[in-house]
Design goal:
The structure holds two protein chains of two kinds. Chain A has a seven-stranded mixed β-sheet, sandwiched between helices. A six-stranded mixed β-sheet of chain A has the order 9-8-7-10-11-21, sandwiched between helices. The longest helix of chain A has 20 residues. By secondary structure, chain A is an alpha/beta fold. Chain B has a single domain, classed as Up-down Bundle (Ferritin), CATH 1.20.1260. In chain B, 67% of the residues lie in helices and 3% in strands. Chain B is mainly alpha-helical. Classes of the chains: A alpha/beta, B mainly alpha. Chains A and B meet through helix 4 and helix 10 of A and strand 1, helix 1 and helix 2 of B.
Chain lengths: 488, 146
């Protein structure tokens, strides 16, 4: 096993878990076991929380400018090990090396933004709210915060939160996804190298049980979660019951609307990334494309271009430079997607490209691979049009006009992202104004907000108030204290 | 080989710039009258390799179409074998031919990706313009003019 049994990082030490139960960590492209993750015991989760709690008072007293310096150092180390960090993601997740590098870059950007904490964390003040009396607001850290990230971006998603949490003076416990925890181990090795005090960051490996322990523990003051909507609801409820702050990001079913004036070549190229990037396993992936207008020739041209481009996608081991799509992260996840394809066929959608017929670059086991699928003439009530598939499957639908397309978007319970492809500024503005989705794309297929903007989400895609990244994350990880001051 | 992904194009650009830099260094050592110019070319090639790579690594992101951003781009530049017996005019002819291929590659790469990965084509345009000037320089360096 290339990476062995991963260890917990508690109170500045890498410690072997005593857990008997373990999960294999697999490289999905090669279908081999590359590591093993322990399902840590309750006592180990508690030890991580205790370590974070003990480190909090001193860390809180560390000036923001000094806390920021650890992040500056971390950025340096990440730049030096950029390729190593990216390769690990591809090995444990399966995504292409381009995608892993993108993930590493986005993670680093969050560290860079959070390193500006002396400015970001500033409060407000007003002199003479009454004569001789001043009032001001101070931002204070919460205490111990926990992070429960998903499998699909094992390196980046924790960095939507971790840098802001520690920069604002909180201490942190992360329970990485048991599917691909190695990226976080590698990241924390670098954090350790910055010389950060013991207990400020901690890793405890495990599954749902460890996550539940973190959510319910009275010493944890804030929880961030990214995953599916049913679990996001559970997290939101559990944290509410124990009085914690929570960011709970759920699933998605993102619509991409193609207006009749869209440039077909550009739109199709952009949509390939949106539907098939990361093998469709991201909450910003395109799921349903709606072609607007009654022009059958345009519709036909679009479908032909889309299917042809999807057919040509090179699928294989993401470590090969020319590969455009890697495998699904596991066999189970592939089987789930296959189930949706079967359901789509059974419900009468036309399967214009069947990704179950595997064509790979190179001699690789088919275990976790699917090629791109395209369904056309998809009805709004079909299961494949309504539920999150989380795989490389595109559903193409039609609408007579933009308002009908927007109604179709609003019929979905999700509201993570929506995009429009058009050359018409008026249509784009209307779309931006009307659509209830947290992230809107205009001629952009993956509406991934940069680190200095919040990663938004609406409806069943997000439970909470403030979001990850940027100023929203700073607000999430700080409590506001108001002081009114008078001197005699 | 066809290059489609940003990763494959960057790897290829890196190879072309570094291999051709090495060739210029060898040619420069072979013919004293070419040394200064060819050493300068080799230096610029290494700088280009870094510039294009930096453009890619600093914008690479899942919001950009890195897996799908290049089209109809063939990685088929032929880098000539170094030969100790090549005369000055043969070297210059080989260099012009090589530079034309490299310039053509950059122009095609930039054009196919302009809307999808803007920062990288911008760097490629700059390099292509430099290459056009270099071709003129090489043509002026014909033995009669040296």
């Amino acid at each position: 096993m290339e990476f062995g049994r991963v260890k917990n990082f508690i109170d500045g030490e890498w410690v072997e878990s005593e857990a008997k139960e373990t999960w294999p960590i697999r490289n999905p492209a090669l279908d081999i076991v590359i590591g093993e993750v322990p399902m840590s015991t309750d006592a180990e989760v508690d030890a991580a929380i205790r370590s974070a709690r003990a480190a909090f008072p001193e860390w809180r007293r560390t000036p923001p400018v000094s806390r920021a310096r650890y992040l500056h150092r971390l950025v340096q180390l990440l730049e030096e090990r950029f390729e190593e960090m990216s390769v690990v993601q591809t090995k444990e997740h399966g995504k292409t090396i381009d995608e892993s590098r993108g993930e590493t870059r986005r993670g680093i950007e969050n560290c860079e933004v959070a390193a500006g904490i002396p400015s970001l964390m500033m409060g407000e003040s007003l002199q003479d709210i009454a004569s001789g009396i001043d009032e001001y607001v101070i931002r204070e850290p919460l205490g111990v915060c926990a992070c429960i990230p998903p499998f699909n971006f094992p390196f980046m998603v924790p960095l939507w939160f971790l840098p802001y949490a520690i920069a604002t003076g909180n201490t942190f416990v992360i329970k990485p996804s048991p599917n691909d925890p190695i990226s976080q181990v590698k990241l924390h090795e670098l954090i350790e190298e910055t010389g950060i005090p013991e207990g400020v960051v901690n890793i405890v490996h495990g599954g749902a049980k460890a996550a539940e322990r973190l959510m319910k523990h009275e010493d944890v003051k804030g929880v961030t979660f990214v995953g599916s909507t049913p679990i996001a609801r559970i997290v939101y409820r559990a944290c509410g019951e124990t009085g914690k702050r929570v960011i709970a990001q759920g699933g998605a079913k993102n619509f991409l609307v193609v207006m009749p004036d869209a440039d077909v070549d550009f739109t199709v190229a952009s949509m390939m990334t949106s539907f098939y990037g990361n093998a469709g396993q991201r909450c910003l992936s395109g799921a349903n494309a709606i072609i607007v207008g009654k022009d059958n020739a345009f519709y036909k041209r679009f479908i032909e271009g889309f299917v042809e481009a999807a057919r040509k996608i090179k699928v294989g081991n993401g470590l090969e430079q020319g590969i455009q799509m890697g495998p699904l992260q596991s066999k189970d996840k592939k089987e789930r997607v296959v189930g949706y394809i079967e359901k789509g066929v059974a419900e009468g959608a036309k399967l214009a490209l069947d990704g179950r017929k595997i064509r790979l670059e190179g001699n690789l086991p088919h275990t976790c691979f699917l090629n791109p699928s395209v369904f056309v003439d998809v009805g709004q009530q079909m299961t494949i049009a309504r539920e999150e598939i989380f795989g490389p499957v595109a559903c193409i639908m039609r609408a007579d006009h933009m308002d009908q397309a927007i109604d179709m978007i609003h019929a979905s319970p999700f509201g993570n992202a929506a995009s429009i492809y058009t050359a018409n500024g008026g249509w784009a503005r209307e779309f931006e104004f009307k659509v209830q989705a947290g992230n809107i794309g205009i001629n952009i297929g993956i509406v991934a907000p940069m680190a200095f903007f919040p990663f938004s989400g609406m409806k069943d895609s997000f439970f909470g108030i403030t979001h990850g990244q940027g100023k929203d994350a700073v607000r999430f990880f700080t409590e506001t204290k108001v002081v009114i001051r008078r001197w005699y | 080989m066809e290059c489609i992904t940003a990763a494959s194009v960057i790897t290829y650009v890196s190879k072309i710039e570094l291999d051709s830099a090495k060739l210029y260094e060898q040619w420069g050592k072979l013919h004293g009258q070419l040394r200064d110019s060819f050493e300068a070319f080799a230096k610029v090639n290494k700088k280009n390799e870094q510039r294009v790579k930096r453009a890619y690594y600093s914008v690479v992101s899942d919001a950009l179409e890195t897996g799908f951003c290049f089209k109809d781009l063939r990685a088929d530049i032929v880098i000539p074998e170094f030969s100790k017996g090549a005369s000055v005019s043969e070297v210059l002819n080989l260099a012009v031919s090589l530079e034309r291929q490299i310039q053509d590659f950059y122009v095609k790469a930039a054009n196919s990706s302009r809307a999808l990965l803007p920062d990288v084509p911008r760097q490629m345009d700059k390099v292509a313009q430099e290459r056009a000037k270099r071709i003129e320089q090489l043509q002026v360096m014909a033995p009669a003019n040296l």
